[in-house]
Amino acid sequence: MLYFIIGMAILAVGSVMTVVQLRSGADTNGHKAADFYNVVMQDGADPWMVKHTDGYYYYTQTTGGNVKLWRARTLTGIGAGESKTIWTPPPGTMYSSNLWAPELHHLDGKWYIYFAADDGTNENHRMYVLENPSSSPMTGEWTFKGKIADATDSWAIDGTVLTVGKDRYFVWSGWEETVNDKQNLYIAKMSNPWTISSARTMISTPRYDWETNTSPQVNEGPELTIRNGTINLVYSASGSWTDGYCLALVTAPVTANLLDPASWTKRSEPLFASSGGIYGPGHHSLTQSPDGREDWIVYHTARWQGAGWTRNVRAQKFTWNSDDTPNFGAPVPPDSPIPLPSGEPKRTRYEAEEAKLSEGAVAEQEDTASGGAKVRFEDGKGSLQWTVNASEAGDYVLSFRVCNGTSSLAPASLSLSVNDKQENDVFVNFSGRNHWGMYATAVHLNKGGNTLSIAPFSNDAELDCLDVLR
Question: Residue 298 and residue 98: Cα distance in Å, rounded?
Answer without folding.
Answer: 22
